[in-house]
Design brief:
globular, 3 helices, about 20% helix
């Protein structure tokens, strides 16, 4: 496992659009699904994902804010983020993180009924690079 600063890891995460988000489901089941962060990763270790409020992942986050994000890069890098999720229902904040590619899933943009922004703040990050052990 390579040692990297948060700034370097955040830059690497920005290069990884798709991750697998794992949440703690009911009855001890871990639920995992692909999510796009639209390369919206702040240098403070926070990742952002748009979703609908009526999804299992949002229900899971409401029950337990602990989530895990798994990023795999085409160059052989792997990043695991264990963090704490929060749900943002503020339209102004949505606009700050909106990318036009999201219009494919959210037809009315930030005015789409029932959307929410999931922010995941990293607590612990692990990084592996295939070229460095």
């Amino acid at each position: 496992m390579a040692t990297k600063t948060l700034r370097v890891l955040a830059k690497k995460m920005k290069d990884h659009d798709i991750c697998m988000m794992s949440t703690n489901g009911s009855r001890g089941v871990v639920n995992t699904r692909p999510m796009s962060n639209n390369r919206d990763v702040k240098y403070n270790g926070e990742s952002f994902f748009f979703s609908y409020m009526d999804t299992r992942k949002v229900k899971d986050i409401q029950r337990s804010a602990a989530v895990s994000l798994s990023f795999t890069g085409s160059s052989g890098s792997y990043i695991i983020v264990n963090g704490k999720a929060r749900l943002i229902k503020d339209k102004t904040t949505w606009e700050e993180h909106w990318d036009d590619s999201l219009n494919h899933w959210f037809k009315k943009g930030v005015d789409t009924p029932g959307i929410v922004l999931i922010a995941v703040k990293a607590i612990h990050i692990k990084y592996w690079d295939k070229d460095k052990e």
